[in-house]
Amino acid sequence: MDIEDTEACYRAVKSRDRRFDGVFYTGVTSTGIYCRPSCPARTPAKAHVTFHRSAAAAQAAGFRACKRCRPDATPGSPDWDVSGDAAGRAMRLVNDGVVEREGVEGLARRMGYTARHLNRLLNAELGAGPLALARARRAQQARVLVETTTMAFGDVAFAAGFASIRQFNDTVREVYATTPSQLRERARRPSRPEGASTGLLELRLPVRAPYSGRELLRFLTAHLVPAVEAGGPDWYERTLRLPHGQGRVRLTLPSDAAGGDTAAAFVGCRLAVDDLRDVGAAVERCRRLLDADCDPVAVDEELSADPWMAALVRRRPGLRVPGAVDGDEAAIRAVLGQQVSLAGAVALGGRLAAAYGARTSDDSPPGAPDRLFPRPEDLAEVDPATLPMPRARGRALVALCRALAAEEVPLDRSGDRAEVRARLLALPGVGPWTADYVALRALGDPDVFLPTDVGVRRALRGLGADPDTAGLSDRWRPWRSYALMHLWSTLDLRPSGRAPRPATAPGFPQQGAPTCGP
Prior knowledge:
The chain is built from 21 helices and nine strands. With 518 residues, the chain is an alpha+beta fold. The strands form two sheets. The protein has a five-stranded antiparallel β-sheet. A four-stranded mixed β-sheet has the order 3-1-2-4. Helix 3 (82-95) runs antiparallel to helix 4 (98-111), helix 3 crosses helix 5 and helix 18 (417-425) packs antiparallel against helix 19.
């Protein structure tokens, strides 16, 4: 984000969105302190704030660090606060269950630090080390399973990531001052379904209202990859590749829910996993797909101030940016979408899944998804000439898959977004549209805009705006990803079929304007 754009920076401060922590710092002239954008203190008046690229720059300007948000943990580079950014990336990996699967050493290895340095960094930034953070996550996950399912407590313990039932019991008593049985008794409801089998869960995923669930569903069903995904009037289903096995999820999205800034809606989640240890990771990935952690009130308030966006926001309050359950899959599908129609990209995805995707190990119901999307390792050594696409795009796809398989481009939201984007652009055949679309879907970047996208240009013309106007999207910072979704929502997105006709696209250069729309 450009700190010269003070309007965008101030909107980010008003939203208290942690995604901007480390991107810039706010100096408050009336108090002489500087803060992170997410600081919980009262938002200062716009006339009393200045913006700085780093904690060191704010200190050099004469500001002292806020004692509430502690922005000075590690004064860092001119672009990012290394400590703050690393803490956020570490938390995303902790929430995905990396500590349970790979231990603190594995978490540190992914972050590029020693375990000792990572522990020191997280304690300084968050007040707790990786083991304590993972323990808190396990306790929270266990409480959700205890209160919302009829799973046996032994199954709950292992699904939440505990190493033993005793550890589960002790943690619940210590954290919640009660026993698992008492937690379940207090939360029991007469309507709760009984007899849930091991590995099959019925959950409710809370999302902040307003929530435009049906619009998100419309987007997802327009992009269904045959045999991997399926959708209906109020549901979306897909297969999952998880750390310990396979899974399947059906999400039932509510009618668009409106509410105040403390209101909540719920997405129904029917989850089946081969291994109960994957429950936490599966839930976290579903929340990413749903953009469940967005603050829609802050986003809608700021976008509504713009005349181009006001009517669109009123029509679809709480619009979300669809994420991805697998960053590698999102990147592969982005390359498939280069320079072809949406229907053509969907068709290519289906053909790729049919040729290289493994079948699920369970007995899939008729019409249900029964294939996993191909892994990068499955495609890394494929001859581009054998792929059902133009040769240039085939070479780009294989090069991308080799980089993903070698873990050169981390798309699990653990990497620095700017660095990940630079690595993507360094790959042959990957241009700005593809890299930015990956940032939008896989990395959860809230400030992405695709000015060359044909769908965006068509939507802008439909609003009476000139898509070639310089700086047109700058007024929507730092929420350009949400403005982008509002523009795409004006287009006629038709649900993809089970077996769409293959597209026949000629060869093309990568850098031109893509024609796949959203």
